[in-house]
Amino acid sequence: MKLLAPLAAAALLAGCSGGDEESTPATTATQTVTVRESTPAETVPAPDRAGSLADAVRRVLPSVVNVQTKSFGGGEGEASGVVLQRDGLILTNNHVVEGSTGISIFFNDDVHTKPLDGTVIGTAPERDLAVIRVEANDLVPVELARSSALRLGDVVIAIGFPAGLGGPTVTSGIVSGLDRTIEGPNGDLTGLLQTDAAINPGNSGGPLVDRSGRLVGINTAGIRNADTENIGFAIAIDEALPVIAQISDAPPATDAWLGIAFSSVDSESAAVQLGLDSSTRGAAVTVVYPGGPGDKADLAVGDVIIAADDVPIRNASALTKLIAQRKVGDELDLELIDSRGPRLVTVEVARRTPGALP
Fold first, then answer.
1. How far apart are CA 320 and CA 317, in angstroms?
2. Domain extents in the chain
3. Which of the residue ranges 39-43, 171-175, 178-182, 263-267 would you say has the lowest mean pLDDT?
4. Which residues are catalytically annotated?
5. Are 103 and 23 in contact (CB under 8 A)?
């Protein structure tokens, strides 16, 4: 079922509380990991409909994390995530990490009392999902339930970090709708769960759980306008698991690389945040790896690549595709711009070696 246009247009991604309204999509890094194998659907339990809400929160809280991000220009954001694997795999929304230059993960497990640095190892912008890795092997993974077994009226609980209140916030409600479709920045988000549990800025990426604290969805968006209230959406976990496996296990598209990480500058606010004209579009350098091709060509964090070999670059995806078409040893002429003005550099495409990326 697709929402009527006026309602769909009002759907807002819950985002990072304290962050910018618009941000730039992060690129998908090329490191691969193994997601816990999906349990056969017939063996995953149906959602619990009788348990204590307080007990459910107690069970799932050690698996809920606070995701804090930094972006260009000193921007900061705060959102949520959920632990998928004991060895450091964390799930959140793509829009939480897009455009980030640094990620810190805070835990609720009474073991990790200090934040750990997070690395985005894969994203699926069209599904608003992202996988983060931290260096740990003793995390508490969330338990799963079958979202396909949910019924209208089933009780669900949302947990996250909205509004920068200093700790986790718990809201509860019911499943208000199934198989919803809303408009997202990277296309329609389909197969969503609708709930009246409050989904606010900062809840993004956090879990929607049943009465046993088992994961049924990933909170992603809420409807906020003068005519509606208590309409929130979550990505059904049954729909998310295959996507998580795909974005985490996919091999690198190419061995060629420039020794940099980059993200999209595809909106007026992203361009202005970098001190550029609002019409600027391109791929902003977020990391320059020491000793790599970009480092040798004097690329710097904050440079925006607006053309490569005379091909206009409108976003990070366009640059990724162009690099994939080049061979190791090719030279790539880049047209750059930063707050000081334009310049041209030539970068030699190199072979990515194991361990070259974090």
1. 5
2. 5-249, 256-351
3. 39-43
4. 95, 128, 204
5. no
The fold of the 256-351 domain, in CATH, is Pdz3 Domain (2.30.42)
What's the rounded mean pLDDT across residues 1-10? 39
State the Cα–Cα distance between residues 293 and 353, nearest whole angstrom.
12
3-class state of residue 87 by DSSP: coil
Q: Whose CA is closest to 263, among 83, 18, 23?
A: 23
* pLDDT of res. 16: 62
Predicted confidence (pLDDT) per residue in 308-340, tens digit = 999 999 888 788 888 888 888 999 999 999 877
CA distance linking residue 70 with residue 91, whole number of Å: 18
What's the CATH fold of domain 5-249? Thrombin, subunit H (2.40.10)
Rounded CA-CA distance 124/121 in Å is: 11
- Say if residues 151 and 175 touch (Cβ distance below 8 Å): yes
Instruction: Judge whether 209 and 49 are in contact, CB under 8 Å.
Output: no
Residues near 159 by beta carbon (within 8 Å), at least 6 away in sequence: 57, 60, 61, 64, 80, 168, 169, 170, 206, 207, 209
**Torsion (CA) 12, 16, 19, 24 in degrees, nearest 10:** -70
Question: How much is the average pLDDT of 165-188?
Answer: 88
**What integer pLDDT is reported at residue 243 of this predicted model?**
87
pLDDT of amino acid 18: 57
